[in-house]
């Protein structure tokens, strides 16, 4: 009977005849081949001229498609943003409305805003005395007044023109934020609210038809170092007949000027609006450092 001779290991594998034979041969070959070699072969197959399993032409098509797709997305996004901003600008007069005016508030109160603010729009006024560091606040106030319509005159004293007291007596402009439909009645002289300062009660004796604004130090140590506060106009009250106000009109302004405060200390200032049935307040920080004197020793 015919006996099959054992397979000589030196004889190479016969060429596969079917796809199944090809897969079996590749799998058996991969088992014997180290992982490092297989990884390098995957990165670049020299025999078939493939990179990561793809030819150069295939990679060029994929990269070109990706670039075209990203270009389309960026163009579509920029076109959509440009169209939206243009629509807001021309229909709603976006440039003439302050950002803070677009805010809304609860029915129990109204918002106040203080100008100027820091670069990051935080309620912080910080600069070194007798230097040009306060220039940014002066420029912000100049821009603020340029945006406003000149149909109403406000007696703001030294706070109504540049440099707005900056240096030793900085000014802060306080206004009521716009809220459609909001109005308030002035305080009554016989009000039993214990939080009303005595100075506000003195103002009420002279005029009972105002929404009063009063500023003071937030904490006890702030009150010790805040120095003196002046108001323009005086006494500092908003005319309730101007409210409710529409978005095209300008809000009434009250200037608050601080002087004789302690240098080198962060002072928290709270300005509160008092009206019948409630109150609203805004807070900002004032930090003015003294300029260092150079002492020459002989």
Automatic annotation (TrEMBL):
Example of a GO MF term: ATPase activator activity
Any one GO cellular component localisation term in the record: sodium:potassium-exchanging ATPase complex
GO process annotations (BP): intracellular potassium ion homeostasis; intracellular sodium ion homeostasis; potassium ion import across plasma membrane; sodium ion export across plasma membrane
Region described as Disordered: spans on this chain: 1-25
Keywords, ordered alphabetically: Membrane, Signal-anchor, Transmembrane, Transmembrane helix
InterPro entries, sorted: Na/K_ATPase_sub_beta, Na/K_ATPase_sub_beta_sf
Bilayer topology: Single-pass type II membrane protein
Protein name: Sodium/potassium-transporting ATPase subunit beta-1
């Amino acid at each position: 009977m015919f006996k099959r001779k054992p397979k000589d290991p030196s004889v190479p594998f016969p060429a596969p005849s079917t796809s199944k034979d090809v897969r079996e041969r590749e799998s058996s070959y991969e088992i014997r081949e180290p992982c490092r070699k297989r990884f390098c072969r995957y990165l670049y197959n020299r025999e078939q001229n493939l990179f990561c399993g793809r030819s150069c032409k295939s990679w060029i098509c994929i990269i070109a498609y990706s670039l075209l797709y990203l270009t389309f997305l960026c163009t579509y996004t920029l076109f959509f943003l440009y169209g939206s901003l243009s629509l807001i600008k021309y229909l709603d007069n976006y440039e003439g409305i302050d950002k803070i005016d677009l805010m809304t508030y609860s029915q129990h109160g109204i918002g106040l805003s203080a100008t100027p603010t820091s670069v990051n729009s935080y309620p912080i006024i910080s600069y070194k005395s007798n230097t040009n560091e306060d220039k940014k606040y002066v420029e912000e106030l100049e821009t603020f007044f340029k945006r406003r319509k000149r149909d109403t005159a406000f007696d703001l004293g030294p706070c109504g023109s540049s440099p707005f007291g900056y240096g030793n007596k900085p000014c802060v402009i306080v206004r009521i934020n716009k809220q459609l439909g909001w109005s308030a009645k002035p305080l009554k002289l016989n009000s039993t609210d214990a939080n009303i300062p005595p100075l506000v009660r003195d103002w009420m004796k002279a005029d009972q038809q105002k929404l009063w604004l009063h500023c003071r130090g937030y904490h006890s140590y702030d009150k010790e170092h805040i120095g003196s506060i002046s108001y323009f106009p005086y006494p500092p009250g908003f005319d309730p007949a101007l409210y409710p106000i529409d978005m095209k009109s300008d809000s009434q302004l009250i200037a608050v000027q601080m002087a004789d405060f302690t240098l080198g200390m962060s002072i928290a200032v709270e300005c509160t609006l008092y009206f019948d049935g409630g109150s609203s307040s805004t807070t900002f920080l004032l930090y003015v450092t003294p300029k260092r004197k150079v002492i020459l020793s002989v």
